[in-house]
Amino acid sequence: MIFYIKNMVCNRCIMVVQQLFESFNHPPVRISLGNVETRDPLSDNELEKLRKSLESYGFELIDDTKSRIIEKIKNVVVQSVHHNTEDLKINYSDYIKSHLNRDYAYLSSLFSEVEGTTIEKYIILQKIERVKELLVYDELTLSEIACQMGYSNVAYLSNQFKKVTGLTPSHFKQVKENKRKPLDEV
Q1: N-terminal to C-terminal alpha carbon distance within the chain
Q2: How confident is the model at residue 65 (pLDDT cuts 50, 70, 90)?
C-alpha cells in the first residue's frame, strides 16, 4: 500500500517517518520524499493513529489526487535545489514534467490554483533558502554560490535575493540569525 505524506523535505524526515511506520509494525518496503510503500494495508484504527502520530511531527497524510500532485511537485523542486549535486542550470518545466509524467501546463495551473502562487515563484523561494544556507556556512564566495545555484551572474542573484528577503546577500551574512526558514514553511 502506498501512503502520500506532506511536508517530507529531507533525509531526517524520511528517517522519522520510517520509524513511525516501524512502530506500527508496518516497516516501509520503499520510502522517499513524500511517499511510503508498505506490504500490508493498515486497519482504520491504525491509520487514524498513524495520522495523529504524523501530525505530531508536522507531517500530514494526503488523501486527494490534487494534493498528491502538488506535494510531488514540491518534492521534485526541493530535491533538485537542496539535494542535487548536478548542474542547476536546468529547465525546471522540463525537469518537473519528466519526473511527474504530466503536461507542464496542467501541473502549473493546478499548482497555482491550489497554492496561490506559481511553480516559478516556489522555485525562486527554494533557491533563495538554499542561498541563505550557503551564505551561513560561509564556505563559498557569492560568485561560487551564484554559479552553483544556476544564476547567470552575481548581480542577478543579488537582485533576486534582495527582492525576496529585503536584504542584500552581504547584509544577510552580517545579520544571519533567525533569517532562514524551515523548508516546509517556504
Answers
A1: 29
A2: confident
Phi-psi category of residue 179: left, alpha or beta, with phi > 0 → left and psi -120 to 50 → alpha? alpha
Q: Helices (H), strands (E): how many in the chain?
A: 9, 4
Segment (H or E) for 30: strand 28-32
Q: Is 22 exposed, middle or buried (0-12, 13-18, 19+ CB in 10 A)?
A: exposed
CA nearest to 184, candidates 57, 84, 53: 57
- Residue 124: what residue type? I
Helix (H, G, I), strand (E, B) or coil at 38: strand
Pairing between β-strand 35-38 and β-strand 2-6 as defined by DSSP bridges: antiparallel
CA torsion 12-82-68-6 (nearest 10°) is 30
154-184 pLDDT, tens digit each = 999 999 999 999 999 988 888 765 566 666 6
Question: What SS3 state is found at 62?
Answer: strand
Q: How far is CA 110 from CA 54, 86, 87, 102, in A?
A: 26, 28, 27, 11
